[in-house]
Amino acid sequence: MSMLKSALFASALALPLAGTAALADTPDDVLVIAQNIDDIVAIDPAQAYEFTSGELVTNLYDRLVQYDAEDPTVLAPGIATEWEVDAEAKTITFTLRDDAVFNSGNPVTAEDVLFSLTRVIKLNLTPAFILAQLGWTPENVDDMVTADGNVVTVKYEGDFSPAFVLNVLAARPASIVDKALVMEHEEDGDMGNAWLNANSAGSGPFELTAYTPGQMVRMAANEDYFKGAPEMSQVIIRHVAEAATQQLLLEQGDIDMARNLTPDQITSLSSEDIKVETFPQAAVHFLSFNQKTESLTDPAVWEAARYLVDYTGMTDTIIKGQMEVHQAFWPKGFPGSYDETPFTYDPEKAKQILADAGIETPIEVTLDVINSAPFTDMAQSLQASFADAGIEFEILPGTGAQVITKYRERTHQAMLLYWGPDFMDPHSNAKAFAYNADNSDENYQATTTWRNAWAVPDEINEETMAALSEADPDKRLDMYRDLQAKVQEDSPIVIMFQASYEVGMGADVSGYVNGATSDFVYYRLVEKE
């Protein structure tokens, strides 16, 4: 790019993204994105807990082990090149690579790893609970994470599979920061927290070079990245809240990617210079029946319900591009997913199931739903299709807070809602959909099983806990698939869909990876042809 064009491009980026832009095309080695980024509260890995924050942390930092852009379904070496598990002693020993360098030029050392992991626990900010699951506290964490040369030993407490521990260590707060650089900017004992919320100190494929809250993020390529420098010399994310403006900018060629287009806008894109890519997301959407409602306790009602959802009717119309059919509790695209979809809309079969069980219809049920699209449209579809078998829904729309409050209080009858994992280990959802050993009102649990008052059979409870502690990774994933098949077949929770995410981008853009959560958005492999 010429110096003149570089100067013009920089000037254009300094202006609000509205109206006709000064340039028709973005530079070949710069990826320009329009996105609503006003959710960012923090970008320090020890504090970041928002969607956009997760995307930034993933591209700015490495972890001991990590899901990477080449294949986000595989847990791969990061700062560590190898690791040894001693499940009996509850330790994992990591050997660090010798070619990782922070953007500051400082080498990544075991001391940085110790500092980063213990810092999260000692600061005890929002995402600290993810690492604290390993039994770490501010008082014991210095003994739980130790180093000898370039070898780091992690200890954990609890009856956990090493695979579970590795997934915890691949989560956002386990990102490795540059101790020397961070502590240069410590203020009042904050371990560099304030500074890291406006700067980066990582070894990832990109470095944060500018951040203006509610306006813009600029990242520059790490030319010394151990897996190879990114093709894009810069990634620039401009805050554009209005989807219509994002569409206009994309159609004008002023940006390479629009991240928040509506389904209607996606449909209206017709230029041969624009393409749309769809990415499965981690949230699963379900219909559930509260077992405190006597008319909903017969398993025949649960079975019939699975044949009363017009799955393809909804995905072809009201939720087209937003969801895809998925009928198990762990999202497709991650190890351990169960992707069989045995149920289709068949009201005659549903009526026969109810008749064979001697269930009298009509059954009148209230259905709580968040009062916004597409949820109200989905509720109306369910109302129509379930009526075909004599199950009559009275739709009760409410705000998200109202609906979730009823759910937590177990005062609903039927509920249309969705669920996403806290981190990418199948236990995160298994505990929500396949475990409830104490169904008493006093034993509040943030799970779908407890909130629907489903006393999970002992066999499934035991298998869920056995999977959590299973040391053999392949056997463990098979156990989760088995659990999903059992819950899919026989439970008062009817899982219907997995969220999808559509991104409009220039036809010349390739290599963009958008995994199932914001922690799996990667720009390292992006190219422009």
How much helicity do the residues have? 25-40%
Beta strand count: 21
Average pLDDT score: 93
CATH domain class name of the largest domain: Alpha Beta
* The CATH homology group name of the largest domain: Periplasmic binding protein-like II
**Total number of domains:** 2
Shape: globular
In CATH, the topology of the largest domain is named: D-Maltodextrin-Binding Protein, domain 2
Unreliable spans? 1-24
InterPro entries: Peptide/Ni-bd, SBP_5, SBP_5_dom
Keywords: Signal
Organism: Sagittula marina
Pfam families: SBP_bac_5
Question: Can you tell me about this structure?
Answer:
- The protein has 529 residues and is α+β, with helices and mostly antiparallel strands.
- The protein has 2 domains: 30-231 and 507-528, 3-Layer(aba) Sandwich (D-Maltodextrin-Binding Protein, domain 2), CATH 3.40.190; 280-501, Dipeptide-binding Protein, Domain 3 (Dipeptide-binding Protein, domain 3), CATH 3.10.105.10.
- It contains 19 helices and 21 strands.
- The chain has helices at residues 3-13, 51-60, 110-123, 128-132, 141-144, 162-169, 179-184, 193-196, 243-252, 263-268, 299-306, 311-315, 347-356, 375-387, 400-409, 427-433, 448-451, 458-469, 473-489; strands spanning 30-35, 65-68, 71-77, 80-86, 91-96, 145-148, 151-155, 206-212, 216-221, 234-239, 257-258, 274-289, 323-325, 363-370, 391-398, 414-419, 493-506, 509-510, 513-514, 521-522, 527-528.
- The strands form 5 sheets. Strands 1, 8, 9, 10, 11, 12, 13, 14, 15, 16 and 17 form an 11-stranded mixed beta sheet that branches. Strands 4-5-7-6 form a 4-stranded antiparallel beta sheet.
- Strand 19 and strand 20 form a beta hairpin.
- The two termini are 15 Å apart.
- Mean pLDDT is 93; it is low at 1-24.
- Belongs to the bacterial solute-binding protein 5 family.
- One of its GO terms (biological process) is peptide transport.
- Residues 1-24 form the signal peptide.
